[in-house]
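Help!! Second protein's tokens look totally different from the first
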Amino acid sequence: MDGAKESSVPLPFRRAVDGLRKARLRSGIEIDPVKPPQRLAPYAYALEAAVVDGEEDLADGRLILLHDPSGHDAWQGTFRLVTLVRAELEPEMAADPLLPEVCWSWLTGALEARGLGYGEPSGTVTMASSHYFGGLGERRPATQIEIRASWTPREGAGGVPDASAHLAAWCELLCQIAGLPPATPAEGAPGVVSLPQRRGPHHP
């Protein structure tokens, strides 16, 4: 992004994006900026992440930061976080009838554990099972879970949300749905990763 375009981006959004770029996250998470959608809000920034074990992706997802300086009635604020998270489940987890409620609680619990204020949460938890036949009959049945959610982060000083902490909470959701144990308070110094900085925030 050239200097003229950068200066036209609202300062609160630039600071929120800087918070995403500088976030320090758990090891085992591969995360990269990607092209954001262009019609959801005047300004947007998107990330894709995967929880990786060797060459296997245990879970993956996308997190999008939206900003409308004029505010948005449905958001009740000027920022919105939108996410999609997916993972393949172990059979014993897939059989749990309370799993959708548990997965939603992972998201809200990760936000609340960091003392993050948020409003207007909404979303869906979807489970889809696949059974294989014929030439694929040797494969065991598989169940994938998908979480789609959005929430309005509370804005702090200067109208800027703590985007870094919201990203860390989202990564905790990603790790939990991948089957990893919750992070401990001691985690965060060695083995953390910071975001690569390939692209600037998008605006029309």
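Here's the second one for comparison:
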Amino acid sequence: MDNFTSDISGQQFPLEQRILGASIRQPIFKLIRKEYPNFGKDKYIAATELTRFKEAYITEFLKDESGQLSQLDQQVIQSFKDNKVISASMDNDGVTAASVGERVADKVAEFGGSWTFIISFVVFLLIWIAVNMYWLNNKGFDPYPFILLNLILSCVAALQAPVIMMSQNRQEAKDRERARNDYMVNLKAELEIRELHEKIDHLIIRKEQELVDVQRDQVEKLGFLLQKMEKIEEAFKNK
């Protein structure tokens, strides 16, 4: 296996890990120059060595105004180091099952915010009023002004409001978790796209260098053939 010598560490690495300094993005290149001032555009570095500088650049890139990384950013960096898919890790996270009270709150909120509840409640009120006013001649169990009905309505409103708030709190927690996951996935995607651009640039420069080497080799061979032909022509002339 062909090896090359890294210009920053002097160690031997496989040739497929060789990266030209000119193919490295400028921010990462500055980080390398900061630690190794003699490193230039015409120097070579190994991909495994470049990974350390990429991690340092990503850490600086993600730092907020306080100069610290958030927990989400640290998770993204760790997944980037481990080459793991964030969406898969989020799918594998243990999700606590909703309790009976939480499921009841969700059902109550779902039913209380529907036209079925509104129509059913209006029909119930009309039947209540009709029974007491007309069928029982306003002398039934709840004559006008319907004190018992007002009490029932007050109790329903008093109980329904906190139950709906419980469901809304659960929905807000789900929305926050969804936003958190979306942020992590988008950030990882941005970093992966940057990495992909860098790999493509490196591949283009590497192919160009290989093409230059092939052309140089062909020119040398043509020069050798021309010299040989000139010698043959001189030999024929001398005869």
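Reply: Different proteins will give different token patterns, so don't panic. Strands lie at 3-5, 12-14, 18-20, 44-46.
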